[in-house]
Every structure is written in C-alpha cells, then in structure tokens.
Amino acid sequence: MTCRAPVLPLDALFDRWPAGQTIHVIHDTAFAPESFHPGVDAAGLPCKPTRFAPIRDAKSRAVPYLYGGSTLDCAIFETVFHEVPVDADDKFVDLDDFAQRGHGELVPRRDLRLVDLTSEGLHRLKLPKEELITSPARDYLATAQWAQALHQQFADVDGLVWMSRQRDRDRSVMLFGDRVKGELGGTRIAGPLAHNDSLRQTILAAALRAGIDAA
What we know:
Elements: E1 14-17, E2 23-28, E3 55-56, E4 62-63, E5 65-69, H1 72-79, E6 92-93, E7 101-108, E8 112-116, H2 119-125, H3 129-132, H4 140-153, E9 159-163, E10 171-176, H5 177-180, E11 184-189, H6 197-210, E12 213-214
Parallel strand pairs: 6-12, 8-9
Antiparallel strand pairs: 1-8, 2-7, 3-4, 5-10, 7-11, 9-10
C-alpha cells in the first residue's frame, strides 16, 4: 500500500512533550547527542531518505532533524534493530556496525508542541497507520511529504510524535532543528558502544527478548 500524498490544509491533532521529560537517542559519538542531522550533504544534496526526512521549509531550505524515543529500549529498537525484518527466519545484528554509537539523553528546556501521529491523530488526517507509520522504506519519499506539509502548514510545531514502529509500547519523536535547536540539553551516557559494556548488555537483553541474534 503506497502512502497517499497530503492534501492541504491538513486537520492535525497536537500533543505536548513536557519540558524536562527525557528523550533518548542512540547517536554518533563524533557529535553531541543533541546534534541535528542537516538533511543534506556537503554539496547540498538530500541525504538518504528516512520516514520523515529530509524535508524543506516553505523557502526550500533544508530542515535539520533529530529522531529520538521515550525510552532507551525504544531508541535501541529504532536505531540498532531498525533494519531487522520482523518476519525474517534468521535475525542478526552485527554490533560492530554500531561501535561508535552511544546513548544520549536530551531534555527540552520548554514544552514542545508536536503533531500527534498516533491513532487519534491519524484519524484526523484520514491516513491509515499502514501508509505512514508501518510502511516499508521504499515509501520514505512519500511519507516524508507528510512531515514537510505539516512543517510548512504549522509554523509553531516543533516536530512529530507517534507510537514506535519497532517498539509500539513507546513513543518516537522527530524534531525540527529550525524550531528546536538550542532548546535541548544533551548528556552523553558513558561512551561509545565499543567501550561501553553497560550499553552492550542492554542491547543484548533487548535482542534476546525479541529473538534477535546480536553479537
């Protein structure tokens, strides 16, 4: 099922991420945990598509973005296990591919206003979950159009929130860097996975629960 294109104006539902409530990230430790992805490379070309990025604002400028989760397990599933098919016979993750990733905690200094893409918000948008939240990677160019349309229509929105596709007991967020940059305090939790046994054991425990072979 291909994701349909957004038709303006959009009837969005909004939610609030309270100031002081932690957002967890598994980030590249070469950068601070609160760093936003620029959305474009050094030549100004769009980077690899994700579900809600890259996008551009109303003046065609690239919008930096950051993904996170409401728990560390959510961040692990959405990053380390993101490419593991649910129905695969053999599920394996090579943790060496994430050796320089680390756990970061972000704390908003103010309340964040987010577009609600949980079931209630999707009802308002008349958009099935299967098209926007659980659709495969081949649809990312189409799903990102929704993030772009919402960003352009609602100038006071800081990002999006939805129930994690990979761990649907937790909330995922995507924040718009042009709205939120400078509003997040970031803390590195220990170091990169290559030297962080605590994070490794947390990932291995999550993998065991999900029946994923990780080493």
